[in-house]
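User: hey, got a sec? need Pimeloyl-ACP methyl ester carboxylesterase folded
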Amino acid sequence: MKNFIYPFIFLLLFQVPAEAQSQRAYDATLSDYAYRYPVNYLEVEQEGQKYRMAYMDVSPPTSFKNPQTVVLLHGKNFLGAYWQQTVNFLAGQGFRVVVPDQLGFGKSDKAEVHYSFHQLAQHTRQLLDHLKISEAVMVGHSMGGMLATRFALMYPETTAKLVLENPIGLEDYRRIVPYKSLDELYQEELKRTEAGIRDYHKTYYTSWKPAYEEWVRIPAAQLRSPDYPLVARVAAHTYAMIYEQPVVYEFSELKMPVLLAIGLEDRTVVGKAYIKSEEERKQYGQYPQLGQQTAGAIPNARLLELNGVGHIPHIEATDQFHKALLEFLKQ
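Assistant: Yep! Here you go:
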């Protein structure tokens, strides 16, 4: 376990002028981007090759004894670093916090392999075994919610509780969004621009704030790297994973306590732009209804509805989300 580090150190050490930021290029594993907490690596194997999986392991102050572990699982268009406020909060409340970058994301290797939630869940279990953690609370946001669900289904004995924060996959995208081949998806990824990334991120929130710019700046800097074609290929693979591997039909099999946190302004549909009809697009991604429907399918679920909040409550409504999360963890 790593020592608890206060966030102001990060701000002092890593401030960079705006002009330099706009020209910076980040490689496939974000070698020059500093996370707020120390990053470690676990070697995992897939398809006969070995890859590095990055993770943060943050301990509470030593005054807290025998801390419970919380694992934070990131979304598709994000990385472990965007949990920094939640890590700081939970560690301050006495929890050990483990934050993996899944293979293909953040500081982890960009492997050109078949991506599956089963395999990512297995990597996550290997990480917990490596850290000698036998039980944890799994918290998943967006794509991380799909992964957390798969993990809980595969390893119920390891999953003390489950928190799903605006998870995607509450509907079967195969029935909604036209199919795209990996080649088509790759070509779409190659067309990405900084402006396009920013416009997409703006759909996550009810109103845009300068603080959100950080999560645009990182992927935009990767566009300028010679590694970007590899990043784009992996992004195509992970889109296909989400599209082809639904979890929506298995929520009734979750037996542990579940907190389903829903920002009611969220209208996320993976691949929404591929739906040609505007009227049809409006029918899907209706999180107020999807949240209630999903909570009804899970035997031991508590539904937290957040008014005026979009796709990322832990960033847009941080205090409100943290309060509800802490109450659930201490029940």
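Quick note: The first strand starts at residue 40 and ends at 46. Let me know if you need anything else on Pimeloyl-ACP methyl ester carboxylesterase.
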